[in-house]
Design brief:
Blueprint: H1 14-31, E1 35-39, H2 41-48, H3 54-57, E2 62-64, E3 67-72, H4 75-80, H5 85-103
Parallel strand pairs: 1-3
Antiparallel strand pairs: 2-3
Length: about 110
């Protein structure tokens, strides 16, 4: 969601998100991906326009603006909490399945 890591690995502040959001929106517009993987809650909240916990958002496929949105845990979460490793792998397997399906035109 932000273009640089906040100091001390803290959550990005609203002003940082607001500053970076136009760049992300423009990148998505220019690249025009069929599938977007949101890494973590801040990206998921921004792209989906929802404020549910990432644990409630992940595991589901969303559709916004003609795109498939796949929320996943941020990979750093698995580094700090090894119990999230398998959940993260599930998320990436789900992402792969969506990408394969889109690639086949389904």
């Amino acid at each position: 969601m932000v273009k640089c890591r906040p100091p001390g690995n803290r959550d990005p502040e609203p002003v940082e998100i607001e500053t970076c959001a136009p760049y992300l929106s423009r990148q998505i517009e220019l690249i025009d991906p069929a599938v977007v993987a949101t890494l973590g809650r801040f990206a998921a909240h921004y792209v989906l326009g929802l404020d549910s916990p990432i644990t409630a958002l992940r595991g589901k496929l969303y559709h916004r603006d003609g795109r498939n949105i796949v929320p996943v845990f941020h990979p750093a979460a698995a580094l700090y909490d090894s119990s999230k490793r398998e959940v993260l792998m599930e998320d990436f397997r789900r992402l792969r399945a969506v990408m394969d399906r889109v690639g086949r035109g389904e």
